[in-house]
Write the structure tokens for this entry.
Amino acid sequence: MSDPNKKLNSLILKLQKETGLKLTIASDKDPDQETLDKLEHLISQVKTTSSKSSVLSGYLNGVISESEARQLLIRKASDEKPAELFLLHFDNKLDEDSGVLSVLSELFDTSTTEILRMDDNEVLVLHFRHKEHDISELEETAGYLVDTMNTEALASVSVSYDSMALDFSELPLTYRHLKAAMKIGRTFRTSERIFGYHSLGLGKLISSISNESAREFLEEELPGIDFRQFDSETMNTIEVFFASGLNIAEAARALYLHRNTLVYRLDKFKKTTGCDLQNFDDAVKIRIGMLLSQKLNQE
């Protein structure tokens, strides 16, 4: 039978090694099994918390300060490199057998990449580079991730990205940008899968408006209009018309419609709402109203 005091001393030494703290237990009695089990559990917890991935996750989420994270992760100035970050949001919850993480690990050099599971649906990829990459290269990588996850892991995913974090201090801000881009993109650009924080357009502004202000605008500027009452054909017509810069000929081509058919649909919308989409001011009001309505419906 093992000596409990010997086991206790061994566990204390392990805990000291993991934490750097000098520890003693003041007791004249032999340690019981419960005490030894608690120490083993504490060592396990410390090891997990001290792992690089856990420290990075804590730093990104504001649980660990920059100085603490630097102390644990960066040994010398040359270790600090620019990093590209990609946030992946999977349509379905991830499970241990999904194969997603193993597919991701094959796409990047594991010596320079951290793959962090942030929650049941989201994974963050941090890829440390020796030099900065421009935004077009990051967009290309985001598209590659969407395609590869779809074909190799059979998983539907959305990916958000931002400019590279040039040093360690910029990582939390870049991560916040990725989370914002994912939320805004999934709210206002439901047909898309790739969201760059720099190209969110009006969605970025609309997302910062309070629900109270959104409702107030809809009630005062667009009274009686409920965008949920319009069918998909009408909404798609409006979206394409806006995307075409309010140009009837261009929108008709994009919709594969005769010009007169498009004019008929716009006139029908005008009669229903009182808003003329060929009038710039009315078009702006409707565009903002559609986005505000989408925001409120997502809450």
